[in-house]
Amino acid sequence: MESLGQHIIVEYYGCPPEVLNDVTHIEQTMLGAAKIAGATIINSTFHHFSPFGVSGVVVIQESHLAIHTWPEYGYASVDVFTCGSQVNPWDCYRHLLAGLKAAHGSAIEMSRGVLELLPKLAEREDYETNRDRPAEAPVHRNVWFTERGQDIALSLRHTGEILYKKQSPYQKVEIIDTFAYGKMMTLDGMVMTTDKDEYVYHEMITHVPMLTHPNPKRVLIIGGGDGGAVREIVRHPELEKVVMVEIDALVIEAAKEHLPAIAAAFDHPKLELRVEDGIAYVKNCPDAAFDVVIVDSTDPVGPAEGLFTEEFYRHAHRILKDPGVMITQSESPRFNVKVFKEIYALYRKLFGNDKVHCYLISVPTYPTGTWSLAYCAKGDVSPVADEKRQNALLSAHATQYYNAEIHRAAFALPNYVKTLLSS
Ligand code: SPD
């Protein structure tokens, strides 16, 4: 039966989940399938959905290849539609079977545009398939990273090259080259920091406690393996020692290799860097050992889960001197409403109602862009900055986000956040 094209609808089963969750591998395999079949590639667009799944399309002069993967089931659904007689979709099928490492595959073939059923137009020759299309069209790749919550997602377009990708005992550590925000670190598919907006988070999680505590000599950072918080902390002349406890050596390695502007202070003489479990460190730490404790954690899944527990924060409170300040990243009042509410209730229980203050930061690469930090005071200390030290810092260093007005304004909360915190 003569037709305009062949369409095969394909199922691949028993594929390794890590293969189906690797957007660049999927993209390359799909492009490879198109090439092997002799197709002319026009364009491609691929998305990774955090935590699982890739969707993508390769547009070819002869029609398209499309894929959707379910890593959690080891399953991929593919369709390949090719027009004309030059491109054989079964070549794509075989290439993808091998590239996706599928245990088995199956497909049904349909003839599309059966010629017998098509009206015979006198001028049909004038509308020949591919008539005015260039033989070698430029390929535009369009590859996207997506961090997805239940109902909200954040996507960033990237080059398709993953600069660093290793699975540590704790999490998958990746550095992706994005177009809008430069190099970006993700842990288990969640954005941690990017070259272009890292300063918001790092300046606000450090300068606020350092300029409000009367004499911040000893600082503990839990997490923070990219080095951004340390880089800002060592700008403060009152500092005598900063201990940073990062559980994952690969986070430090990736940052040193690919984010040197963030990982800029790892050799600082005041830094004691410990690659070990921060939860155990805090548990075994003597009372009143630090003036400031900063919890620069990932989100409350995987290795950071224990950093969102009552036991951990009890110890954090215990190891603070009086006066002392604990700062934590406290998730987003837009993206993780449940965690946000629970975590503030816990801080208030441990530190006291009037000792806990939420402040907001605007981080474009975190889902919703609205993120929060928690200021928890022990003893007589409040979030008001020491102006003299603030002026000294601001004249010595060109901060990109932090200034005196932002410091004050960050603590002014919109009503919807006040409501969340009071309910
Ligand atoms: N969803 C991101 C939450 C913040 C994670 N910490 C960022 C680490 C930067 N040092």
Break the fold down into its secondary structure elements and pairings:
Blueprint: E1 3-13, H1 17-20, H2 23-36, E2 41-50, E3 54-60, E4 63-70, E5 75-83, H3 89-99, E6 104-114, E7 140-148, E8 153-167, E9 172-178, E10 182-187, E11 190-194, H4 198-212, E12 218-223, H5 228-233, E13 241-246, H6 249-258, E14 271-275, H7 278-284, E15 290-296, H8 310-318, E16 320-329, H9 337-351, E17 356-362, E18 370-378, H10 387-396, H11 404-409, H12 415-422
Parallel strand pairs: 2-7, 12-13, 12-15, 13-14, 15-16
Antiparallel strand pairs: 1-5, 1-6, 2-3, 3-4, 4-5, 7-8, 8-9, 9-10, 10-11, 16-18, 17-18
Helix pairs in contact: 2-3, 8-9
The structure holds spermidine.
Structure description:
With 423 residues, the protein is an alpha+beta fold. It folds into two domains: 130 residues, 4-Layer Sandwich (S-adenosylmethionine decarboxylase), CATH 3.60.90; 225 residues, Rossmann fold (3-Layer(aba) Sandwich), CATH 3.40.50.150. 27% of the residues lie in helices and 35% in strands. It has twelve helices and 18 strands. The strands form two sheets. The chain has an eleven-stranded mixed sheet. The chain has a seven-stranded mixed sheet with strand order 14-13-12-15-16-18-17, with helices on both faces. It is elongated, with a radius of gyration of 27 Å. The mean pLDDT is 93. The site of spermidine has 14 residues, from strand 11 and helix 5.
